[in-house]
Amino acid sequence: MNKLRLAVFSSHSGSNFQSIIDAIKEGKLFAEIVCLITNNSNAYCVERAKQNDIRYYHISNSTHPDLSEYEQAILDVLSENNADLIVLAGYMKMIPSIIIREYRNRILNIHPALLPKFGGKGMYGMNVHKAVVESGEKVSGATVHIVDEIYDNGRILNQMLVEVSPQDTPESLAEKVLAIEHQLYPLTIQLIAEGKIMLDN
Ligand code: GRF
Question: Measured in whole angstroms, how far is the alpha carbon of residue 114 from the centre of its chain?
């Protein structure tokens, strides 16, 4: 069996990126991270790439002001590195539709709530946890889903739950959800590697 070749996209801290690196090192995930693509050269995810000898690329509208050159730069990196799967891990930019078409059903995202609830435009970061706490929901969690042309809309592949207690604040809920994201993302990618979650249906 060949290792799944992952291209990770991240914009900030990259703690989910780290959880995938760690799962591979620990032998829990049979995959290889072939590159990191970031739109933010100062982000901590770049440090994580350096520390782990992972090739990284800064591609943004400052490096490529022309949209078609920007899209082509990403496509070139993906094909040069023979990426099988694109793994969005806190990537704050919309994926251009030309890339979605080229990698249909092969782009994953992790969202810090139980989709289809609390998703869509504007639902990112602390906005999500604030909305969950304000709604009075008793459970929240994380969702791994396929990326299509619409925010947080693609097929749900896997979810993990956390309890929302009456004492929870958006900040405390964010911490609990991030902790399960770090289990859910590597686990879900491993289930894909094992053929237990199929991407093409
Ligand atoms: C996570 O909460 C993830 O669900 C969302 O962005 C956050 C990224 O965190 N898409 P990190 O950069 O992986 O630490």
Answer: 15
